[in-house]
Amino acid sequence: MYDLSCASVTKSFGSFTAVRDVSLDIPSGSFFSILGPSGCGKTTLMRMIAGFETPTSGDIAIKGQSVVTLPPNKRNVKMVFQHLALFPMMTVGENIAYGLRCRKEPKSEIAPKVARVLDRVGLPGSQDKRIDQLSGGQKQRIAIARCMVLEPDVLLLDEPLGALDLKLREHMKIELKQLQHQFETTFLYITHDQSEALVMSDNVAVMNAGRFEQIGPPKALYDAPASGFVAGFVGDSNVLPGRLAEVKGDEARVEVEGGGTVIGRVADASKPGDAVEVFLRPEALRIGAGGEGTSLSGTVESFLFNGASSRILVRSGAHLIEVADPEQSGAAAQGGAVSVAWTAEKARIFARRPS
Amino acid sequence: MSRDAGRLSLILLFMPFVLWIGLLIILPQLGIGYYSLREKVGFNQFEFGLKNYVDFIGEPVYRNTLLRTAWMSILVTILALIAGFPVAYYIAKIAKERSRAALFLMCLIPLWVSDLVRAYGWIVLLRETGVISTALVKMGIIGQPVEMLYNDITVVMGLVYTVILFMIVPLVSTLQGMDDALLEAGYNLGGSRLTVFRRIIVPYAMPGIVSGCIITFMLTAGSYLTPILLGGKNSSWFTEQIYNQFITRYNWESGSAFGVSLLVFTSFVVWAGLRLTGQSLATTVAKD
Amino acid sequence: MQGSRHLLWIYRAYVVIFFLYLVSPLLAAGVFAFNDSMFPSLPWQGFTLDWFFSSEGPKLGLFHDDRLLQGLGNSFYIGVIVAALSVAAGTCNAFLFERKQFPFKGALYVLMVVPLVIPGVILGISILVFASMVANFADQQFGLFLTWLRPGIPLVVLGQFSFLTTITSLVIAARLQKFDISLEEAALNLGASRLRVLLTVTLPFLVPALFSAFVVAFLVSFENFNTTLMLVGSDAPLTVTMYDRMVKAGSTPVLNAVSVVLMLGSGGLALLSVLAQRPRKAG
């Protein structure tokens, strides 16, 4: 049985369809992310699961029970809001006890429960602190504790790291993953930041314009994207627009705009004559000679140093190509002529994305 | 969220609004409109007609009082703007951070004091046996006590005093929003003080100027205490005429016609002001 | 800038003179409450508190003057009722205009602001006329004597309520606008009922605004003269009593004493409301 499942959920606001025919099943105890650019409908989907919006059609079930007719305060789905929404007029303890009081739990049980959950998020004894005395990371943990004390079936997290600075965000990613393990609760995490989704999740759904483009484990999304959108949104890629010239078995030949041909693998239903794009990951490229269609020649424009993710920028005709250069080997000199090569199965061809 | 609950709460929230605006604003205004259109022809016998208005226009005393009230209100508004703008500008732009709040609060103090106390203060200062007159005599500057009350200059000064805060407050809040870099850029581009004032400061402060002028004008035209206490028996202020018709003469029909005339007239001035400056009531008056 | 030194000093001097102009009548009204004289004027006869506390004439002190005390009581009574009513109505209006969508919202919003720009005297007479129309109608048709629709405290309350509600609505709506709606959603999400959300999350957030709206309404009611004058019956509030005294009996320092009490009272309340609005900083 799934902790949360959506079946063909659609939500329209007037003539605008925010979420279109979305289905998903989240197994118990897993960390599931929805990744998409802002405005793709991910927040609307989450608000429907929490009960703040009603789907236009489709069904949402929690632990197998349909919840579409239940008001938000009757659903056992708890939510960590984008700006956390901790109650500023209450102490930490009162914030955490809020849901328990709403449930009319006996007073004698509330205090120990609050103390226990504060222990688990690593902030024991902070019941009497005011919200404005907490740091960003502490607020984050209190917001999670406030939900987890209610033992929800699913915890929804709506870009909760968005408001933190970069350093803290990196740290909280790991901490969130650990908390999820510790509580063994199903997490549904919404983000537009691919690295958050890839690092923490068991499964990721990539969402675009109200639809799911692909659902799968992070590695599958990265290595075998199902569409040009996923290939472009997850991880970095060099993109060469062109026209599909011919397909022979596995291999396909693309005439790249601005001259040259590239051989790669067609990864969707594109047919010869279609406008397509070739996606090349920087780490699939190396400096060195290659065969016809699996290399491009150009000149080194500049070096972008960034430790293990350093890049070399190569200009080839109208295109600027990023080549991974993890060891900064010094194989090329600025302004020098180089050849960039790859193997054909690493060049993925998708239908041209609408611009 | 259930739709029915939303509808129910909308209706419940609407009730007080409708009762308030309907019973205390709209119907009473229609009420005086209705009263102003009837004329007494005998005991408890009325006819409808414009006689009250005809009488009003035909009687120079009434007509002139309205015109005088209008002109003086416009004069007071302009004076309040001229006198208040430098002060607002000083508070918003020149004063240091700390003294700014204090100055602003000081500006607000008279706001919290009743009109009556303020007018009374002026009486204590200005009348023949008052502080200023006595002090001047003591110092030998004048030979005899002088009466400084009961003239138009005093009335205008007192009215400016009463309303100037309502000019300064919106001005300060708009001017505070102005980025100093705008002024620096203006000077930097070679503008003289006057051009910077005319081309940058005034246009920027326009919403504040308009809302300040509207409030000031309405308060002046509708004021009662200051002109009567400082202007004495012959202040000929229009609200006094309304009071006389209603309370002294018990002639509600013509009093209503006076009231409607004042309302129409002031509304027209406000409307014309808004039209000329391209502002709207909701964005200017309701801002603070 | 060079040469602007002098200008700046002239400017400063102007501002100083302006503030002198602001405080001088208040000072004059206040100081002479303590002059041991029968008239609020020079020369200074020495300091006294008689005009506040003396229990017998000719210098009958404010706190022994029954008419003035009666007026003070009436003002207080009217102020509290009007402030409570207008805060309640203002809260409803704030929720209506900040949270709800309905047709003609823009036009109705303007209608809500309009009472502020109607001269107080006209609000007064229009309510007087309308109330008596209703009362006459009830009298003729049903033989009902609705005395509360005749000039008196209930009409004064209605008259002041009619424009104070605009002020309270604007004050409360400004605060409600700053409210983060996700706090309510968070409370719902944690299982709270709508009523509980309102009582535990939304209203506590609004409390400072409700308080200062109440204070402002009370003060404006206390000081109001124009609207009140048209609607007043035999139970006159302090401003009307003081006006009567001024016009009929001439001014004596007891009126200065009233002024002092009014200034201190409203100054204190205003300060309180400013403090209540100030956001509390973490220590």
TrEMBL record, chain A:
One of its GO terms (cellular component) is ATP-binding cassette (ABC) transporter complex. GO terms for molecular function: ATP binding; ATP hydrolysis activity; transmembrane transporter activity. SMART domains: AAA (SM00382). It comes from the Bacteria. Keywords: ATP-binding, Nucleotide-binding, Transport. Residues 4-234 form the ABC transporter domain. Pfam families: ABC_tran, TOBE_2. InterPro entries: AAA+_ATPase, ABC_SmlMolc_Importer, ABC_transporter-like_ATP-bd, ABC_transporter-like_CS, Mo/tungstate-bd_C_term_dom, P-loop_NTPase, Transp-assoc_OB_typ2. SUPFAM superfamilies: MOP-like, P-loop containing nucleoside triphosphate hydrolases. One of its GO terms (biological process) is quaternary ammonium group transport. PANTHER family: SPERMIDINE/PUTRESCINE IMPORT ATP-BINDING PROTEIN POTA, SPERMIDINE_PUTRESCINE IMPORT ATP-BINDING PROTEIN POTA. This is ABC transporter ATP-binding protein. The lineage of its organism: Bacteria, Pseudomonadati, Pseudomonadota, Alphaproteobacteria, Rhodobacterales.
From TrEMBL, chain B:
Pfam families: BPD_transp_1. It is found in: Cell membrane. Residues 66-273 form the ABC transmembrane type-1 domain. PROSITE patterns: ABC_TM1. One of its GO terms (biological process) is transmembrane transport. The keyword Nucleotidyltransferase does not apply. SUPFAM superfamilies: MetI-like. It is a multi-pass membrane protein. The keyword Kinase does not apply. Keywords: Cell membrane, Membrane, Transmembrane, Transmembrane helix, Transport. The chain crosses the membrane at residues 12-37, 70-91, 103-123, 153-172, 201-225, 256-274. One of its GO terms (cellular component) is plasma membrane. Belongs to the binding-protein-dependent transport system permease family. CysTW subfamily. This is ABC transporter permease. It comes from Primorskyibacter flagellatus.
TrEMBL record, chain C:
InterPro entries: Bact_Polyamine_Transport, MetI-like, MetI-like_sf. Pfam families: BPD_transp_1. Belongs to the binding-protein-dependent transport system permease family. CysTW subfamily. PANTHER family: PUTRESCINE TRANSPORT SYSTEM PERMEASE PROTEIN POTI. It is found in: Cell membrane. It comes from the Bacteria. The chain crosses the membrane at residues 12-34, 76-96, 108-135, 155-176, 197-222, 254-276. This is Ornithine carbamoyltransferase. Residues 72-273 form the ABC transmembrane type-1 domain. GO terms for biological process: transmembrane transport. Coiled coil: none annotated. It is a multi-pass membrane protein. GO terms for cellular component: plasma membrane. Keywords: Cell membrane, Membrane, Transmembrane, Transmembrane helix, Transport.
